[in-house]
UniProtKB/TrEMBL annotation:
Organism ancestry: Bacteria, Bacillati, Actinomycetota, Actinomycetes, Mycobacteriales
Record-listed substrate binding positions: 284
Marked site: Important for catalytic activity: 228
Cofactor binding note from Swiss-Prot or TrEMBL: Binds 1 zinc ion per subunit.
Location of the Adenosine deaminase domain: 17-336
Xref: InterPro entries: A_deaminase_dom (IPR001365), ADE (IPR028892), Ado/ade_deaminase (IPR006330), Metal_Hydrolase (IPR032466)
Protein name (record): Adenine deaminase
Cofactors demanded by this protein: Zn(2+)
Residues annotated as binding Zn(2+): 22, 24, 202, 283
EC nos: 3.5.4.2
Length: 342
């Protein structure tokens, strides 16, 4: 993935303190762990080798990706499976210079096949606590609703999550966007807001109604952040709205190159250069073959980013996070010290 990037630059980017704000825990399932969990749970997989699993990763759009993504989750059954998934990701993220991560999880992808909500969240939570203690990485959970299911099912999931309110920082919306606008979930997000959750939402790349969905997310739902959302470049009013509200955009360049024909580097860098709160993230790194630092390096290679732009992206990753002002300040000072060589 790092191709022609100089080794010293790759090392600089990996060491640069960063936050990750767009990461699906279920999208970190590497084939090796998939085999281990299948064995643990007595599941026979159709593929025999890691290579055979990777050969099934042929995506040309979001729908074809999701068709591979959901069935793979059948190996996740017990709390310790969810723990191992999250802990392996947090270990990799830590090695990649990630200091803080706000991670999506999809409870309905598990409760819908009979796995209790409690198994999912207790496994993820114990990994977060262990990673904080052993690695010093900080992590929060964002619970996503599956937008291709009903609003009633989303509301029931929100109710199921309330006893775990303190373990979940915010709610999001993911899965297949076609025909599933933000407005469909207005009541769910309004209730989540009243319960004290922060709000974010996928506005995926080049969807049939991308601009209208972004408008609804901003004006009708009142999100605190937008996942992807780069189609705002097609409408100056949306750009100004995002700027005026100080909304962070969680962009995922390598993921973009799998679900569309492009990384969308011109759009991402154009928005960064206009001083919008653009961040870089990995989305589903096990499937797209690129963790957080790889995304910085891939965009750098494609768009010829300068070092100060890479540093600005790292600063933005904390500025767009849901950290307290004091912790944000601490991480920004860490970046300053790192860049100064201290
Ligand atoms: N679920 C996992 N990754 C996703 C993405 N990029 N968009 C929508 N839903 C997802
Ligand atoms: Zn995503």
């Amino acid at each position: 993935m790092t191709g022609t990037v100089r080794p010293d630059l790759a090392e600089f980017v990996r060491g640069l303190p960063k936050a990750e704000l767009h990461l699906h825990l279920e999208g970190t399932l590497e084939p090796e762990l998939k085999f281990r969990l299948a064995e643990r749970n007595g599941i026979r997989l159709p593929e025999r080798t890691v290579d055979e699993v990777r050969q099934t990763y042929r995506f040309h759009d979001l729908t074809s990706f999701l068709q591979v993504y959901y069935p793979a989750m059948e190996v996740l059954q017990q709390p310790r499976d969810f723990h191992d998934l999250a802990f392996e990701y947090l270990t990799r993220a830590h090695a990649d210079g990630i200091r803080h991560v706000e991670m999506f999880f999809d409870p309905q992808a598990h409760t819908g096949r009979g796995v209790p909500f409690q198994s999912v969240i207790s496994g993820y939570r114990s990994a977060i606590v262990q990673a904080r203690r052993e690695l010093g990485i900080s992590a929060e959970l964002i619970m996503c609703f599956l937008r291709d299911h009903s609003a009633e099912y989303a509301m029931a999931t929100l109710m199921e999550a309330l006893p775990y309110r303190d373990w979940i920082i915010g709610v999001g919306l993911d899965s297949d966007e076609r025909g599933n606008p933000p407005r469909k979930f207005a009541a769910v997000f309004a209730r989540a807001r009243r319960e004290g959750f922060l709000l974010t939402m996928h506005c995926d790349i080049d969807q049939p109604d991308s601009k209208e969905h972004i408008r609804q997310a901003l004006e009708e739902i009142g999100v605190d952040r937008l996942d992807h959302g780069t189609n705002i470049v097609e409408d100056e009013r949306l750009v100004e709205l995002v700027r005026a509200k100080g909304i962070g955009l969680t962009c995922c360049p390598v993921s973009n190159s799998f679900v569309t024909a492009h990384m969308k580097s011109d759009e991402i860098v154009g928005l960064l250069d206009r001083d919008l709160l653009v961040t870089l993230n990995s989305d589903d790194p096990a499937y797209f073959g690129a963790y957080a630092a790889d995304n910085y390096l891939a965009l750098r290679e494609q768009a010829g980013l300068a070092v100060d732009q890479l540093v600005r992206l790292a600063r933005n990753s904390f500025r767009a996070s849901w950290l307290t002002p004091a912790r944000l300040d601490g991480y920004l000072r860490e970046i300053d010290a790192y860049v100064a060589g201290g």
